[in-house]
Automatic annotation (TrEMBL):
<keyword id="KW-0066">ATP synthesis</keyword>
<dbReference type="Pfam" id="PF00213">
    <property type="entry name" value="OSCP"/>
</dbReference>
<keyword id="KW-0813">Transport</keyword>
<protein>
    <recommendedName>
        <fullName>Oligomycin sensitivity conferral protein</fullName>
    </recommendedName>
</protein>
<comment type="similarity">
    <text>Belongs to the ATPase delta chain family.</text>
</comment>
<keyword id="KW-0472">Membrane</keyword>
<keyword id="KW-0406">Ion transport</keyword>
<dbReference type="GO" id="GO:0046933">
    <property type="term" value="F:proton-transporting ATP synthase activity, rotational mechanism"/>
</dbReference>
<dbReference type="GO" id="GO:0016020">
    <property type="term" value="C:membrane"/>
</dbReference>
<dbReference type="InterPro" id="IPR000711">
    <property type="entry name" value="ATPase_OSCP/dsu"/>
</dbReference>
<dbReference type="InterPro" id="IPR026015">
    <property type="entry name" value="ATP_synth_OSCP/delta_N_sf"/>
</dbReference>
<keyword id="KW-0375">Hydrogen ion transport</keyword>
Length: 148
C-alpha cells in the first residue's frame, strides 16, 4: 500500500515537472475534444520553434484546399486507403507545396494515428487558437432590412 502511494506521488511529480520547467505552451484559448488536443499540440510545437506564422499559413492553405478540392477532401476521409499510403502521399504533396517541417510532421502524425478524417476540425480549431493569439475576435453582424 505504501509503495502505491509513493508511485502515485512520483507520477504526479512527473506530470507537473514539465509545467515548472516552462515546457508547456499555453494557448490563448482552450479548444476541447480530439480536435482541440491536436490543435494545441500543433500550436505548442509551432510556438516553441518560433514558426507560428508559417504554420498558420500552412493550415489556412489546407483549409482552402479542403473547401475547394472535393477529391482532396474525399482522399482525407476515405477508409479504403491504407494509413501508410495516405500518409506517404500526403507527406509528399505537402513537401512539394513547400509546407514547413512542423506541418508535414503534424500531418504524418495524423496519418499514423488514423486521424486524417478529422483534419477539417483540427485545422479549424488551430485557426481559432491563432486568431485569438492575433487578438482577432469572431463576430456575427445582423442587420435589419426594410422591405417595401
Amino acid at each position: 500500500m505504501a509503495s502505491f502511494r509513493f508511485a502515485a506521488a512520483a507520477v504526479r511529480q512527473f506530470s507537473t515537472s514539465a509545467a515548472r520547467n516552462g515546457e508547456i505552451v499555453q494557448a490563448p484559448i482552450q479548444v476541447f475534444g480530439i480536435e482541440g488536443r491536436y490543435a494545441h499540440a500543433l500550436y505548442s510545437a509551432a510556438v516553441k520553434q518560433k514558426k507560428l506564422d508559417a504554420v498558420d499559413k500552412d493550415m489556412q492553405t489546407v483549409q482552402k484546399l479542403i473547401k475547394s478540392d472535393t477529391k482532396f477532401a474525399e482522399f482525407l476521409h476515405s477508409p479504403l486507403l491504407k494509413r501508410s499510403a495516405k500518409t506517404e502521399s500526403l507527406s509528399a504533396l505537402l513537401k512539394k507545396q513547400g509546407f514547413t517541417d512542423i506541418s508535414v510532421n503534424f500531418f504524418e502524425t495524423l496519418g499514423e494515428n488514423g486521424r486524417l478524417a478529422e483534419t477539417t476540425g483540427i485545422v479549424e480549431a488551430f485557426l481559432k487558437i491563432t486568431s485569438a493569439e492575433k487578438g482577432e475576435v469572431m463576430c456575427k453582424v445582423t442587420t435589419a432590412q426594410v422591405w417595401y
